[in-house]
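ping. complex inputs:
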Amino acid sequence: MSARARLKRSGGGRLVVLIPYLWLIAFFLVPFIIVAKISLSQTAMALPPYTPVLDLAGGWTGLKDFAARLTVDAYALIGSDELYLNSYLKSLEVAGVSTALLLLIGYPFAYGIARAPGGLQPLLVMLVVLPFWTSFLIRVYAWINILQRDGLLNDVLMALHVVNAPVAWLSSDTAIYIGVVYSYLPFMVLPLYATLEKIDGSLLEAAADLGCPRWKAFWRVTLPLSWPGVAAGALLCFIPITGEFVIPDLLGGSNSLMIGQTLWTEFFSNRDWPVASAIAVTLLALLLIPILIYERLQKRAIGEVS
Amino acid sequence: MGEITAPLVRFDGVSKRFGTLTAIDRLSLDIGHGEFFALLGPSGCGKTTLLRMLAGFEAPSEGRILLSGEDVSTLPPHRRPVNMMFQSYALFPHLDVAKNVGFGLRQEKIGRREIAERVEAMLALVRLQGYGRRRVDQLSGGQKQRVALARALIKRPSVLLLDEPLAALDKKLRAETQFELMELQRKLGTSFVIVTHDQDEAMTVADRIAVMDHGRVAQVGKPAEVYERPASRWVADFIGEVTLLEGRFSAPGVMQTMIGQLRVSDPSVALGATVWLGLRPEKIDIGSERPADDINAVAGTLHEVGYRGDMSIFKVRLGDRSLMKVTVANTAHGRRGFAAGDVVWLSWPADAGVVLTQ
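pong. complex structure:
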């Protein structure tokens, strides 16, 4: 019997396997069911601010009565008002463009670290992670300072005579992209570095030996072998950026909102919990698509290996 | 002939230093057309560095490397007409067998159909027909080795470099593959340069061997020359087993040693200088009584007996407490029934040993 099988049989082993499931049930599945339930309700001037409210004291008939009063009105509203569709599209656009930018910046970044002398690599990885030691919120606030009218960026650009008058960086899409790319860069660099660092150097020597100049060896060996890192990094950035709230709220303008901002408005300003919940459920459904594609690609890769 | 043709490969006073470490020390060496040449030596002797310099992965610190008379010292690896088979095989995990083998051809302006044909022919040569669509991680060690070989040969290099090509195979497969390599080399006529630390392997496959030590060539020669006429005690000891007896010649053909006066037929040795007699274990005879006709005979006590099936190994303690190793082929059943502690006589003819001056 293998060690793994032995671990599975014993009670302790079973518990270890259960922990992630229990975690997911308690902190993902149950909250999700609650949110999904609220999304099928209607607003009410009450506490909580929606109806129907599930009351198990009513017994079977109470439960049937509750189910009968659920509606899809909130979803109908999301579908009918362009505001929501535009928010979703805006989010996907910001997430897509940011992920592309992150790849363009993060790949050479990770490649440079992976090709650095072995002793230097841990230090460089540490430097990538170092910003996490400061609160995320404070770092985004710092960008307000840098990007504002009389901020650091304009000072530098004017001192260098690149521009003659201050540029309005803040409250624009540019500011959102700067903030997002800055904040998410470690999430792109780390998985890319992990795959690039594992690539056997003798493969590149073999490519050179068989007639590839350096750039061609990169194109035909390094890049294809780093796809798993590219996929992981892109997913790790794209999904949270789609739901991003803090960065667009602090750095972005008010003309077009990302879905996270719209959700916040519905929840806190309009106190429309059902619509806010419906937005969240729809967003989750939307984000499942890239995750499922990734899963599928990975499964195929594993299937080909075994 | 008249005209002097350049050797295929010439190392001309080549040195390679890594920081303060000298890996190759002013080494000169010629390798001929169609030769199966072995670089043999203990780990750290510089043999792999030498091969990597020929492939173009390392640049010599000084000296020149000539390929068919042309200086290639500074040519990058992708522009050299040599190909290498890596010790780790270095097969591309994201490509199938056919794409791995055809990789080198895709870098040139060669049509898809011709690539496919040459890949097919190459796979047939290494007996892997029908494996083109397999992924490389579905292959056994021996199959991977053959894919690596096919990939390195498909561009028809002027020299094929093999870096410990059989080290990852088990003993039996290794022995078979050695003969396959020799057959392949004869069939193609390509020069093969193999790096190995395994002296049996080098002796089996190579036309000539360069025995390397500390970045220098200790001796170059045919396997039999290197074995029978080693240039130094170090070479004699590195290639095969040897017992070294220190002494000096008191008269032509007469050598004085710690175990007595020996008859040695080596006319070229100066009298009086300290020399060593190297005796290979298979050239010594062992018996329970003093042989009547042999010139050199010494008595000793059998210290250890090793039975290896095809032969037996005897370690005999001599009068001066030194050990002499003797091997005897087990040609008949139940012969040579010696046991540890027995008194035995060792004997050899005057021309059995080799006199070493350094």
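Chain A has a mean pLDDT of 90.
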